[in-house]
Amino acid sequence: MAGSRTNLAIALLTVVVAAAIGLLLVAAMVSRHGALASTSVVVVDALISIPTVLIALMLSVPFGASAAVIIAACGLAYGLNLARILRPAAMLAARSDYVESALWSGASSLRVFFTHIVPNTVPVLCVQLSMSAGTSLLAEAGLTYLGVGVGAGVPSWGHSLATSVKFISIYPMAVVWPGLVVTLMVIALNLFGDALRDAIDPLTNPALRQGEATHVESEERA
């Protein structure tokens, strides 16, 4: 149970860091300043090729093995991936007529981004963040097993796997249970993200489409 607390905290903080980095990069990539937009796209494309494990190894050299290393490495890697995936939907919204109207009415670029562009990316954002939370659990287990993850005094599922491997010849099932818990948690988070996307995306939820059509009809009659 103590290990579950550690892993869920890592997953939550990783999602927060990834969302912050991803949205910041998306804001730069859809910026109306051509140089900033093109430069940010090139930077994301260049950095996204760096594996999460390599980032964690580089961070563990000066800072040592800790949960913060996992959160920073996963947050940066998943934030870059999030920005790359959100960019098409954000660009489509940024070029829409209502965004142009908001800018011409005097709204700031930051306000337009968070009130008009970000809401159009929420379905994709939910799926990607749920996948990032699940993948961070796998990253914690793998990095802790390699010795660059959670510290020795902190309980986690990665430590349970690393300890169980020593007794695999005596009791093989000792490795199965921690691995099964991680697997089920990753599957549950992915299914949760898909279900959330289906519930809030008008493209996959007929009830939302019908509600929007009814709202438009009532406005036209008024």
Task: Describe what this molecule looks like in 3D.
By secondary structure, the chain is an all-alpha fold. It is 80% helix and 0% strand. It contains ten helices and no strands. The protein has helices at residues 2-29, 34-47, 52-63, 67-94, 97-104, 109-117, 122-146, 157-165, 173-200, 206-221. Helix 7 runs antiparallel to helix 9 (173-200). The longest helix is centred in the first third of the chain and has 28 residues, at 2-29. The N and C termini lie far apart (57 Å).
How would you summarize the topology of this molecule?
Layout: H1 2-29, H2 34-47, H3 52-63, H4 67-94, H5 97-104, H6 109-117, H7 122-146, H8 157-165, H9 173-200, H10 206-221
List keywords for this structure.
222 residues; mainly alpha; 10 helices
In short:
This protein has 222 residues and is an all-alpha fold. It contains ten helices and no strands.
Secondary-structure content class:
mainly alpha
- Taking all Cα atoms into account, the compactness measure Rg is 21 Å
Number of helices: 10
Distance between the termini: 57 Å
H/E element string? HHHHHHHHHH
| Low-pLDDT stretches | none
Number of strands: 0
Shape: elongated
Mean pLDDT score, rounded?
81
